[in-house]
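G., the chain you wanted modeled:
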Amino acid sequence: MNNFNQKSLIIFDWDGTLMDSVGLIVDAMRYAAEKHGLTVTDDATKSIIGIALVDAFPMLFPNDSDKYDELLATYSEYYVKHCDNDKLFDGVKELISDLHAQGKTLAIATGKKRKGLERVLPNSGIEAFFTTTKTADETAGKPNPLMLQAILSETGKGIKEAVFVGDSIHDIRMANAIRMDSIAVSYGCEKADVLAKEHPTVIANSILNLKNLLV
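Predicted structure as tokens:
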């Protein structure tokens, strides 16, 4: 097993990895679809978590491109109205604090837009621990590895010094695209058997398991 605790740069996904927001994303997408006369399954929504909505809508509603703008507006309205209820997974704050205390460089690579991340990160209690954060609208949506490459460039770290932690197949595909080690967490949007098919370096089934790997 890789010595992840020797990595100097730890890059985290946000939704479903640090923040327990999968339920809200599913609810918001269902609400938006129903309001505009469409249907979407919870599993289908979970399958697009991690990628930018602009890329997700064609996957979920391939025959309804004329409704994408309305769907986005409705989804965003619902999400913003309810996102204050989202919380970090239990143990995340302690994990991030411990890693920072060890001198690790911490970063976020998320499929959210900058505006969306800034809506939740400042109130999370962990913003100060991150050296840099990258969003899909500033770089490119997952699984394009541009945001990982931007973080490496900004921090001066090499791929071998870094590990990416995420809960979706898009997260693992992004890391694999530049041969970065990855930890897939199975407590977010995808189950372990689905994540295993993407060949992450290792799978963690809980925050405690993740902490044991990294700290």
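The first strand starts at residue 9 and ends at 12.

Shout if anything looks off.
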